[in-house]
Design brief:
The protein is mostly helical. The chain has 6 helices and no strands.
């Protein structure tokens, strides 16, 4: 019976907010709490001489605070949803090196483009293929 009661326990993170702004503020509080924990752990790691761990935890906490600030500005109506903004930024990064594919159509009335002719040429045989062909020609003689 004790295992069954654990299945139906509610989560610690329940959104009781009634509007999207209140949801964003609740998420910001969660991020602030996590950032505070990371800062505390960074201080204790630094005190114990684990400097790399302390720096990593500090960097993560700063990033977490920045995300919390984004959610707070969203709650105030100053910006759009931070998750949507992150996705759009990611898509912009993908666009930087993107070259759209432009197929080449040949109707037969005009000569084929040089690039298409190069693509359709048979590749040159490698060293092993030439050696096998040479040995095959010796055996068949």
């Amino acid at each position: 019976m004790p295992d069954e009661t654990k299945k139906y326990q509610q989560s610690n993170y329940i959104f009781k907010a009634r509007s999207p702004a209140e949801d964003c503020l609740e998420i910001a509080k969660i991020h602030h709490r996590e950032a505070k924990q990371m800062f505390d752990n960074a201080r204790s790691a630094e005190a114990e001489g684990r400097l790399e761990e302390a720096k990593l935890l500090t960097d993560l906490a700063v990033a977490r605070e920045a995300i919390a600030a984004e959610f707070e500005s969203t709650a105030r109506g100053e910006s759009s949803d931070p998750i949507v903004a992150e996705i759009l930024d990611w898509q912009e990064d993908l666009k930087e090196g993107y070259v759209p594919y432009k197929p080449t159509f040949v109707t037969g009335d005009e000569p084929a483009p040089e690039q298409l002719i190069e693509e359709l040429k048979q590749p040159k045989h490698g060293f092993i293929a030439r050696a096998v062909a040479w040995i095959g020609s010796l055996i068949s003689e």
